[in-house]
Design goal:
6-stranded mixed beta sheet; 443 residues; Rossmann fold
Length: 443
């Protein structure tokens, strides 16, 4: 019974059987073909028998294993490897079918591979999750075919595994590594350096136009014969809070991911950058009420706490309550802090409804409102219209794009800084803004 369940007929066998059937049909008219038909079916049966004996000559002719990380990174390409070992004494042709989680909606997964006798090999593929949560990988199936390719034998390896998909830790590590090696400019992050005015000495350098004359180091100047000044480091240990709106406005998708998940990924990266700059990173999420709060800290375990909180964020995309957010911030954050508020406004009127609460938050903290460009509208605006309907649609798209720019102006009028960004550039633009504020000494 086990053999019957694991054996599969190949397309080549069906072709040969079709030829045999044609020979028997022709045999009704020409008897010679009937003899050929009987001989052919004996040959086909013999070949199938030989092919089956080869495939079942060993109990463990093929060994396979799926190798992957214990968690996946949301929004990134995650590599999954498959290790294969051929224990047969002849060359085999393999068809690998992995039971990928249903969330990926991949229905045509198939990897073909050939291995020589007693050879080891490996192959890999990538998956890109767009939602956080638990993903279930099923069994790993390997179909083995000989050179005859009349039947195949299926090997099934119990590789079932539940893998959590966390916010983009791959992106976090990438920017952290670039920050350490001072190569952030490779990904669009601006290199900004500020001469601080606290008491923590950095280095002595040549005077350049604009340096504070009060920092002149006269002893170094006398030694070098050139005007030298002291340079100081920025103030440290400021609080940086990522406040994420989980309401209805964050449900809009872009390249498969919701704006909420883009905000979550950016929060993880900026928190890591802040801690690497000796600032304290904290977190807050809200919809109709504040649902999660993680006090700012720069402990070694803080990034793991932030990742765990972000991973567990769930929402029904209800209407956001900025009043309850303001009350909660007033009660829980006593020190002046940098607050990065990830939300989305489509019209000026929607901003006006929440502006009183934003102004109250900005009165006590340095508030940065981060919201998103509608990239679909941008592509529609840039497209050349060919008829009246497209002109009408383009006009409407330009109106909505203008609303976004007006929102930025309205926020700037009341002294609130804003970042209007495409979703794919959210992380880089947020890091740039943070570094700019650090350089200007605003935090």
């Amino acid at each position: 019974m086990i053999i019957i369940k694991s054996i599969y007929l190949r397309q080549r066998l069906y072709i040969l059987l079709s030829i045999v059937v044609v020979l028997f049909i022709l045999g009704f008219v020409w008897p010679l073909f009937y003899s050929f038909g009987k001989l052919s079916i004996l040959v086909v049966v013999g070949l199938v028998f030989v092919d089956s004996i080869l495939l079942y000559s060993k109990r463990d002719g093929i060994l396979a294993e799926r190798i992957m990380a214990n968690k996946l990174s949301n929004g990134d390409k995650n590599n999954i490897s498959i290790y294969i070992q051929n224990n047969y004494s002849f060359q085999t042709h393999l068809e690998i079918l992995d039971e990928i989680p249903h969330q990926f909606q991949i229905r045509d997964f198939l990897i073909k591979l050939s291995l020589n006798a007693n050879q080891q090999g490996s192959t890999s593929y990538t998956v890109r999750p767009v939602k956080r949560g638990e993903y279930k990988f099923g069994g790993l199936h390997v179909f083995v075919v000989t050179t005859l390719s009349l039947v195949s034998r299926r090997y099934t390896f119990s590789s079932e595994k539940n893998v959590p998909v966390y916010p983009s830790f791959i992106q976090m590590r990438k920017y952290a590594l670039l920050a350490i090696s001072n190569r952030l400019t490779m990904y669009g992050v601006k290199k900004i350096r500020k001469i601080g005015h606290n008491q923590e000495f950095d280095q002595i350098k040549l005077y350049t136009f604009g340096d504070d004359y009060r920092t002149v180091n006269w002893k170094a100047t006398a030694r070098k014969g050139e005007l030298m000044v002291n340079q100081y480091q920025d103030e440290r240990s400021q609080q940086v809070y990522s406040v994420i709106d989980k309401g209805r406005v964050m449900k809009m998708p872009f390249e498969g991911m919701s704006l909420l998940d883009y905000a979550i990924n950016a929060s993880l990266v900026i928190s890591n950058i802040a801690i690497s700059k000796d600032d304290k990173a904290g977190l807050m999420t809200f919809t109709n009420r504040v649902q999660a709060t993680l006090p700012a800290s720069k402990n070694h375990s803080q990034m793991q706490k932030i990742a765990d909180v972000l991973y567990n964020q769930k929402t029904n995309f209800e209407e956001s309550d900025f009043e309850s957010l303001y009350v909660h911030i007033k009660r829980t954050i006593s020190q002046r802090s940098l607050i990065l508020l990830y939300t989305n406004f489509e019209t000026v009127s929607s901003l006006q409804n929440q502006l009183p609460y934003l102004r109250k938050i900005a009165a006590a903290h340095l508030l940065i409102v981060v919201f998103f460009e509608n990239t679909e509208l941008k592509s529609l605006i840039e497209k050349k219209p060919t008829n009246t309907e497209e002109i009408y649609l383009q006009t409407i798209a330009e109106k909505f794009a203008l609303e976004k720019r007006l929102i930025v102006k309205e926020l700037q009028k009341v002294g609130i800084q804003a970042i209007l960004t495409p979703p794919q550039h959210l992380t880089v633009n947020t890091i740039n803004k943070y570094l700019e504020l650090k350089a200007r000494g605003l935090i």
